[in-house]
């Protein structure tokens, strides 16, 4: 079972999300939070596999809550946002979110996204993937402190996997592209994230775009 904590301040929206998730046989909603502080507290207490996090919440916003949850290694975070709130999206990705979905995402796609993140992959709303990565990379390039020399620590295969992440490919797609087992792809992703000091594959995708890999 995939254990999910739902953090959303609007009770009606939260109830709808919970209803959708509970309709999936492999998903268990273990808690509900109405604000960011509660989300962090419940993540510490319940240790869910994933937190479905709204960005605009009282007491502590979703980006700050995401940063705390990820920094403490409590759970993966899948952020819910609207298309016109790019600053929140950028902040969530910098905070280490595994990805984000638009609030008008269809029920099936929401459940699929939860499963994808639970498998250790990232999710970015398809409608805005390319624009998001390109714009975030452009912003980061103006103030990044990352040293491209760190790429020298990566093996040839790890660089190839990083390049694929920059294209937004899933583990399954990368496995086909590079002719390797999906489990091997996961190992390479994990290792390159560690070497680059990154928290999520989405951050790796942004870095790949920024460095033109």
Automatic annotation (TrEMBL):
<keyword id="KW-0805">Transcription regulation</keyword>
<keyword id="KW-0597">Phosphoprotein</keyword>
<dbReference type="InterPro" id="IPR016032">
    <property type="entry name" value="Sig_transdc_resp-reg_C-effctor"/>
</dbReference>
<feature type="domain" description="HTH luxR-type">
    <location>
        <begin position="147"/>
        <end position="212"/>
    </location>
</feature>
<dbReference type="Pfam" id="PF00196">
    <property type="entry name" value="GerE"/>
</dbReference>
<dbReference type="InterPro" id="IPR011006">
    <property type="entry name" value="CheY-like_superfamily"/>
</dbReference>
<feature type="modified residue" description="4-aspartylphosphate">
    <location>
        <position position="54"/>
    </location>
</feature>
<protein>
    <submittedName>
        <fullName>Response regulator transcription factor</fullName>
    </submittedName>
</protein>
<dbReference type="InterPro" id="IPR058245">
    <property type="entry name" value="NreC/VraR/RcsB-like_REC"/>
</dbReference>
<feature type="domain" description="Response regulatory">
    <location>
        <begin position="3"/>
        <end position="118"/>
    </location>
</feature>
<dbReference type="Pfam" id="PF00072">
    <property type="entry name" value="Response_reg"/>
</dbReference>
<keyword id="KW-0804">Transcription</keyword>
<dbReference type="InterPro" id="IPR000792">
    <property type="entry name" value="Tscrpt_reg_LuxR_C"/>
</dbReference>
<dbReference type="InterPro" id="IPR001789">
    <property type="entry name" value="Sig_transdc_resp-reg_receiver"/>
</dbReference>
<dbReference type="InterPro" id="IPR039420">
    <property type="entry name" value="WalR-like"/>
</dbReference>
<keyword id="KW-0238">DNA-binding</keyword>
